[in-house]
Write a structure and sequence with these properties.
The complex is a heterodimer of chains A (about 475) and B (about 325).
Chain A (H helix, E strand, L loop, with lengths): L4 H40 L2 H35 L1 H35 L6 H30 L4 E4 L2 E4 L2 H5 L4 H29 L4 H36 L1 H8 L5 E2 L3 E8 L4 E8 L2 H7 L5 E2 L13 H30 L7 H9 L3 H15 L4 E3 L3 E2 H4 L6 H32 L6 H4 L26
Antiparallel strand pairs in A: 1-2, 3-6, 4-5, 7-8
Helix pairs in contact in A: 1-2, 1-4, 1-6, 1-12, 1-14, 2-3, 2-7, 2-14, 3-4, 4-6, 6-7, 6-11, 6-12, 7-8, 7-10, 8-10, 10-12
Chain B lengths: L1 H33 L6 H11 L3 H18 L1 H10 L1 H21 L6 H28 L3 E2 L2 E2 L9 H25 L2 H32 L1 H9 L1 H4 L1 H18 L5 H21 L2 E3 L3 E2 H4 L3 H28 L12
Helix pairs in contact in B: 1-3, 1-6, 1-7, 1-14, 3-4, 3-14, 5-6, 6-7, 7-8, 7-12, 8-9, 8-11, 11-12
Classes of the chains: A mainly alpha (about 475), B mainly alpha (about 325).
Chain lengths: ~475, ~325
């Protein structure tokens, strides 16, 4: 069988970026939560907030470290596998991606060290300020990355000279038409991720009756937050979808599983899209609802996938189902948040083992939703790499062979598998260790470094001293 | 005119970033290469502790350099990375394993030997790959119409294997002299013993590479023979550094060996640049051919000029805080 470097490179990029994305999407939300905890402690002087802040800062340190390690690979992927794309778009993506790096380094150099190691060494106000700046910094970092991605979805502010993009307006390019929608949608996704992880871990502690007072506070706060954020995300997602309808109608057609442009289009709950036959083999839907959602009118016209020639269509089944996974998880999140409100009225929210266990299970849900969402938006624009201008095939490295791409794909899977299991294994130990006040004796490690991981003193192996108390 | 100025400014920034990376990550990669030869596990603790506070700061220069290249000299980025595809992967895998072993070796008791291996193997592979990149740069790349057209393993030749091994020896030398500076007692004596041997290895490889280079790169040969007066300054200064290093080790000086081996690296690097300037994608493309649009170089320059002083200050401060000797049993137990 002939190895296809294009397909293998796409699989490799999808794997590397998905793997990387789960870390920042969590740290962005968590950084804001930590800043809030610091603020609450600063204002109320309640030790519970301080203990929570310390605990979650340890988790943050480990996840941030893993995000940095996996992110380094990303910055080389563009050149190794997509060199024609890098060269053509470098006038825009070069500076924008560099600004992301510059922001991250500035953040690390100036504030992360103070947040991780400054407790008790700098005034409380300075510590709070560092926490806020770290949270702001993570958002600035994501600002640049999402601007780069949005520009590839809805390119703007450029002219083509000799096959290369030249920027004519930095404002138009950076704040391109889909940018604010994507930024809002991802920012909210980060908050939801942070919220559900904190809620789940707090529930896990409550099930074991550990640090009950602090974890009740954390869980209560998270549930109020999620009650507003989860529905808000649905609204933002709807706006984002309408923006996509305007700029990338074929993507929306694939999301809806709608092949022919028509009015009174049903909202499909289940379908088996068949790319060969250019239709659905089987479908169950609610009549006219897709038309109503997308055009706010029952007989509104919804574009179909067949507006594009078959070789310019995205993989409909993948986009269709990924979209449903994302939406279903979103609905589930809203349901869990509302259930929390109802249980709160009956005063059982901290006692119901079933509800607490559900929250523990929900820890993975935001990550799945985020990945499904990215699959929708990235494969939904296929075959375009820069929408309407450059295809995946045109952007590929010309000298790349299938064998080379397969070699590094297997290599990255192997390396990341090790990194992932080591990281998750260690993270679960940090969490199980819980909110034990840190002393250097626990692990025997003295803080020598401003390395992120050294903020978490949990030993990698051996027994916990005190964890079983 | 403005594009010409910007290209030179950017060449200066990238050149500075590369040498900062090479000398700073160089000594901590070197310690990884020396790891299996260390007298005992306690000296390994000291070796690792001597770089633990600074190593990830050192690697920021690599990332800054990579991102800066895409922004300022995209041709370098879009030719070097495809041409060095396998080598880049090996380097990244090496750096990742080395990075996580840094974090977890300190926290690990039972599994420490695994992290030792990851640290050493990762460092050695990364150093070799970087040395091979230098060799490949001297060789030049098959580029047609701004696109790399060569094969996957064109970069892997006897010449680049030699430069790979040479950089491993060079990093090990930096690591050994760093250890002289940061350790005491039997560990320092061990470092004193291995330094002259490493120096000899480095000089032998550098000598062979220097004789071989005119054969693999006609452009370099022409320059060496036509501009004798200027370019030969650098190897002479490099030899002076080697001599100073040798004498300083004989006299058991503590700081001078490290400074001298830094000098050896810097003059070799300057000699290499002087042999190629202003070609950045050999054999044919200059820094002006490889530049991005002037407005892009300018846009990025603002941010980089803002952040480089901060990174430098942060780096200097970290080294200052963690100055002095690292002792056995200090750092962790």
């Amino acid at each position: 069988m002939e190895l296809d470097p294009l397909l293998l490179s796409r699989i490799q990029f999808a794997f590397v970026v998905c793997f990387h994305a789960i870390f920042p999407v969590f740290t962005i939300g968590l950084a804001s939560y930590i800043a809030v905890l610091h603020g609450l402690f600063y204002k109320t002087d309640n030790q519970a907030w301080d203990r929570l802040a310390q605990f979650w800062t340890k988790v943050f340190a480990v996840v941030f470290g893993m995000g940095v390690v996996t992110g380094i690979v990303m910055s080389f992927q563009f050149g190794t596998n997509w060199s024609n794309f890098s060269f053509a778009t470098s006038n825009f993506l070069g500076p924008v991606l560099s600004y992301e790096v510059v922001t991250a380094f500035f953040l690390e150099a100036a504030f992360l060290g103070v947040l991780l190691f400054g407790r008790g060494k700098v005034p409380e106000g300075v510590h709070l300020f560092a926490a806020i700046m770290v949270a702001v910094g993570t958002f600035i970092s994501s600002f640049w990355i999402l601007s780069a991605n949005s520009w590839m979805q809805t390119p703007a502010g450029y002219e083509m000279i000799d096959g290369r993009f030249h920027i004519t307006s930095w404002m138009a390019a950076i704040f391109n038409p889909s940018f604010w929608y994507r930024f809002a949608h991802m920012g909210m996704a980060s908050f939801l991720t942070g919220g559900f992880v904190v809620a789940g871990v707090s529930a896990w502690f409550l099930l074991r009756h550990r640090d009950v007072e602090a974890n009740k506070k954390a869980l209560s706060m998270c549930l109020w937050l999620l009650l507003f954020l989860a529905p808000a995300q649905a609204v933002i997602g709807d706006f984002h979808g309408l923006n996509t309808l305007e700029h990338q109608p074929t993507k929306v057609a694939a999301m809806e599983g709608n092949w022919e442009t028509s009015s009174n289009v049903p909202l499909l709950l289940f379908a088996l899209p068949d790319q060969e036959a250019q239709s659905n083999r089987f479908e169950i839907g609610i009549p006219s609802l897709a038309s109503i959602v997308l055009t706010h009118s029952a007989d509104g016209e919804v574009p179909g996938v067949t507006e594009m020639a078959p070789d310019e269509q995205p993989p409909v089944a993948l986009v269709f189902w990924s979209f449903r996974v994302m939406v279903a998880i979103g609905m589930l999140m809203i349901g869990v948040a509302i259930a929390g409100l109802l249980l709160r009225r009956k005063g059982r929210v901290f006692q119901s083992p079933l509800y607490l266990k559900t929250l523990v299970g929900m820890i993975v849900s935001p990550f799945l939703a985020v990945l499904a969402g990215w699959v929708v938006t990235e494969s939904g624009r296929a075959p375009w790499l820069v929408y309407g201008v450059m295809t995946h095939a045109q952007g590929l490295t010309p000298s790349l062979t299938g064998g080379m791409a397969l070699f590094t794909l297997i290599g990255y899977v192997a390396v990341y598998t090790v990194v992932f299991w080591v990281g998750v294994y260690y993270l679960t130990r940090v969490v199980r260790n819980g909110m034990i006040p840190d002393t250097a004796e626990v692990s025997g490690e003295v803080e020598r470094a401003k390395r992120p991981f050294s903020a978490a003193h949990t030993p990698f192996d051996g027994d916990f001293e005190g964890a079983s108390k | 005119m403005i594009s010409l100025d910007l290209a030179i400014i950017w060449a200066g920034i990238i050149g500075f970033g590369v040498i900062m990376y090479v000398i700073m990550d160089g000594f901590d990669l070197g310690l990884g290469i020396l790891f299996p030869f260390a007298p005992d596990d306690e000296s390994r603790d000291v070796m690792m502790n001597s770089v633990a506070p600074v190593w990830d700061g050192n690697e920021t220069w690599l990332v800054l350099g990579g991102a800066g290249l895409l922004g300022a000299f995209p041709l370098v980025y879009s030719v070097f990375l495809p041409a060095l595809y396998i080598g880049v992967f090996l380097m990244l895998a090496g750096l990742i394993f080395r990075g996580i072993s840094f974090e977890f070796r300190f926290k690990s008791k039972r599994n420490r030997h695994w992290w030792n291996r990851a640290f050493c193997g990762g460092s050695a592979v990364a150093a070799f790959a970087q040395g091979a990149v230098v060799g490949a740069y001297i060789q030049g790349f098959a580029v047609e119409d701004f696109v790399y057209v060569g094969g996957a393993l064109d970069w892997l030749t006897p010449f680049t294997v030699l430069t790979g091994l040479g950089l491993m020896a060079g990093y090990a030398l930096l690591g050994a002299t760093w250890l002289i500076l940061k350790s005491e007692g039997y560990i320092q004596q061990w470092a004193y013993r291995i330094t002259p041997k490493l120096l000899v290895a480095v000089l032998v490889v550098f000598g062979i590479v220097s004789l071989w280079t005119p054969l693999v790169s006609p452009e370099v040969r022409d320059r060496w023979l036509s501009q004798i007066h200027l370019i030969w300054v650098f190897p002479i200064l490099g030899m002076v550094c080697a001599y100073v290093l040798y004498r300083a080790v004989k006299r058991q000086e503590e700081g001078l060996p490290f400074v001298a081996s830094l000098g050896l690296f810097i003059f070799t690097y300057l000699g290499l640049i002087a042999s190629k300037w202003p070609v950045i994608v050999p054999p044919n493309y200059t820094i002006w051919d490889a530049s991005s649009a002037p407005e892009s170089q300018l846009f990025l320059l603002i941010g980089v000029l803002f952040v480089i002083p901060i990174v430098l200050a942060y780096t200097a401060w970290t080294y200052w805080v963690f100055r002095g000797k690292v002792r056995v049993g200090e750092g962790y137990h």
